[in-house]
Amino acid sequence: AASFTPATGQVDLAVIPGDGIGPEVTAEALKVLEVAAPAELKFSRTQYDLGAENYLKTGEVLPPSVLAEIKGQDAILLGAVGGKPNDPNLPPGILERGLLLKLRFELDHYVNLRPSRLFPGSVAPLSDAVLGKGEIDFVVVREGTEGPYTGNGGALRVGTPAEVATEVSVNTAYGVERVVRDAFERARKRPRKKLTLVHKTNVLVHAGQVWWRLFEKVAAEYPDVTTDYCHIDAVMIFLATDPQRFDVIVTDNLFGDIVTDLAAAITGGIGLAASGNVNPDRTAPSMFEPVHGSAPDIAGQLVADPTAAILSGALLLDHLGHPEAAARIEAAVLADLEARTPGQQRRTPEVGDAIASRVAG
Amino acid sequence: AASFTPATGQVDLAVIPGDGIGPEVTAEALKVLEVAAPAELKFSRTQYDLGAENYLKTGEVLPPSVLAEIKGQDAILLGAVGGKPNDPNLPPGILERGLLLKLRFELDHYVNLRPSRLFPGSVAPLSDAVLGKGEIDFVVVREGTEGPYTGNGGALRVGTPAEVATEVSVNTAYGVERVVRDAFERARKRPRKKLTLVHKTNVLVHAGQVWWRLFEKVAAEYPDVTTDYCHIDAVMIFLATDPQRFDVIVTDNLFGDIVTDLAAAITGGIGLAASGNVNPDRTAPSMFEPVHGSAPDIAGQLVADPTAAILSGALLLDHLGHPEAAARIEAAVLADLEARTPGQQRRTPEVGDAIASRVAG
Ligand SMILES: CC(C)[C@H](C(=O)O)[C@@H](O)C(=O)O
Ligand SMILES: CC(C)[C@H](C(=O)O)[C@@H](O)C(=O)O
Q1: What is the DSSP letter of A192?
Q2: CA nearest to B76, candidates B54, B106, B98, B97
Q3: In angstroms, rounded to a whole number, what is the distance separating the alpha carbons of residues B95 and B135?
Q4: Domains B1-110+273-361 and B124-267 fall in the same CATH topology
Q5: Residue B236 and residue A233 in contact, taking contact as beta carbons nearer than 8 Å
Q6: Left (φ > 0), alpha (ψ -120 to 50) or beta: where does A325 sit?
Q7: What is the CATH number that goes with domain B124-267?
Q8: Is residue B45 a contact partner of residue B316, using CB atoms and an 8 Å limit?
Q9: Phi and psi dihedrals of A105, rounded to 5?
Q10: A213/B236 Cβ within 8 A
Q11: Spatial separation of the C-alpha atoms in residues A296 and A304, rounded to whole Å
């Protein structure tokens, strides 16, 4: 364990099923993962019961000993965490900051990878005129370890009319350059070789300058990659009217959060959106999770779509050095989506079984 | 002048046509404004040549004496400012921060009002399934004087590998409560009486807490208004798949910027989106402007759609206390949109003339 690059042999896999539909979709992702993985790869799973339910039971979000154990694993598969909305015993943000973001920061997941592809057969909320412009297939490289997500800031005179609260976005050359470089690498490997920087440099000047300057600097090393810049507000318009223009997007933590949810929405919904919290330097395990939440309202009914979790498993295999196995999962999902008929209601395990058997051949 | 509430008599109107298509659309907005205004209202216009062109000529963005003069006007109509993209003589952000944001901050435009309505006849990028859910008609109350737009922050060790740049979002009880209160007032006056707070309280905790707390506090005074909360990322999904759920949205400066561009895109495009930078306390003139930019690529050809500028004129009349006159412009725009035929090419003044003659009756 703890080489974080086991392309063969035993892979120590931390599984965090989480809350709500998390365990349901994780079970299907694991099912497909086992079928898709090449024979030389053996998963040794350790399950970690973390999330809202565990917090309500134990009062702990992520004990240091558990974090230390997870750090020794090769990779992490996460379902979804989050309790009932407005549960008075669940302070808002406690799981987000104490668990999800904590893992991203502690494990240096500086590349939050979110592919968006409109698979044929899936239902998009866009008009035929927009969809008719061509294939939608882009990937967002979202910075994962700094920006407005650091928790920096504070408040003064809380609860008085003179209260002032600040929220500080921290952007370092160290943090920006490495994620920009990763995005250029990914852009170079794609047919269109196009990279768009997304920011709001005309208003957020301090942060904007370091992003802009390092983007330009790294661009000079990738003359084969076409570059482009878009303000975050303009991206909204393009995603709604011309999403085909994007190939790879690189952006900060908060803009990336916003852009990827819209990207998921226009490509068939959050039920299909996979993500990887990647540590490209492999100094700690990377973590793979669907973009969707724990959906407590439909939990326990086995009606959740496990596709996003299954596709997150594909990203995991790709990260472990098995792009062909990842491609097999993607192809199976594609075939499954094409075979879906409108109004068809399949239970969560049925979807997992269907995809797994397509992967098996 | 300088009562900022002249419902009758002379209205001193500052006109800032700006760059690119700005002057073209402003001319049509003024045309319609004159026709729609009640007889007792007389506009006395002063034109201010500000923007990229003026900056390139004079080296000044907004001289203090000009700002002082504008402060003495009753209201401002702005076209659009901005030069050619990547003009090396135009430092990025200089007009945005030196002119647009400067005016919003100096004139205490704490309510940035952006209505979104899908007029019948206009082309939306959403599918029939989404559009079929019902009418889209909501308004975003965007905070305009603080948040991440203050310019607070800085950079250290610029240009070295140790560079760190911060961007500070400043949120005060003073600033948050007044805009939240304004939004509740607006929600109360609408049929559905629903107000949604948009933020990212689970991550931006310091800012999130003051927004959340003051939203809850003011809500207690408006028991007739239904309240709701949405994370900014979830708003992306709802705007793409169920925009009908929104009635009034209140949010911070940056989230408001992002949300309103997507709102404009899904309701027929930025060519129709009007906005008001409102000082509800009337301690300074309010400013009305289309959401779109100066579009230098199509400037001078008289092909720009002046509808957004014309609708901004309606917001101006409403602000001056003439909701009926504003409604007449809206109705004329609606009729004009319904009468448009696909592929029809009208020149900018033709659209203005058509709407003006509908207003005239
Ligand atoms: C749950 C939340 C902290 C998280 C984020 O903001 O990153 C989520 O929205 C996501 O996109 O993974
Ligand atoms: C031009 C820019 C500074 C401005 C903003 O960010 O507010 C614009 O995008 C807008 O929405 O009016």
Answers
A1: S
A2: B106
A3: 37
A4: yes
A5: no
A6: alpha
A7: 3.40.718.10
A8: no
A9: -75, -45
A10: no
A11: 11
Q: Tell me: domain A1-109+319-361, CATH 3.50.50.60, correct?
A: no
| Most informative mutation of A150, A255, A257 for ligand 1 (most atoms within 8 A of CB) | A257
Residue B257 to residue A252: CA distance in whole angstroms: 17
- pLDDT at B4 (0 to 100): 67
Rounded to whole angstroms, the Cα distance separating A221 from A199 reads: 21
Instruction: Among 3.40.50.300, 3.40.190.10, 3.30.420.110, 3.40.718.10, name the CATH number for the domain at B1-110+273-361.
Output: 3.40.718.10
- A257 has catalytic annotation: yes
Q: What whole-number distance in Å separates Cα of residue B184 and Cα of residue B191?
A: 13
CB contact (8 A) between residue A169 and residue B174? no
pLDDT in tens, B119-140: 887 889 999 999 999 999 999 9
Q: Where are the domains of chain B?
A: 1-110+273-361, 124-267
Tokens 């709102």 — which residue?
A: B263
- Name the token pair of A160: 């008085």
Q: Does residue B261 have an active-site annotation?
A: yes
Show Cβ contacts of residue A309 under 8 Å, excluding neighbours closer than 6 positions: A25, A26, A28, A29, A79, A274, A289, A290
Determine which of B97, B197, B205 to mutate to test the interface with A (most A C-beta atoms within 10 Å). B205
> Comparing C-alpha atoms, which of A346, A274, A352 is closest to residue A317?
A274
**pLDDT tens per residue across span B223-254:** 999 999 999 999 999 999 999 999 999 999 99
Report mean pLDDT in 10-residue bins for chain B, 361 residues: 67 97 98 96 96 97 98 97 91 92 98 94 92 97 98 97 98 98 98 98 96 98 97 97 98 98 93 96 97 94 97 97 96 93 90 98 87
Dihedrals φ, ψ of B79, to 5°?
Answer: -85, -85
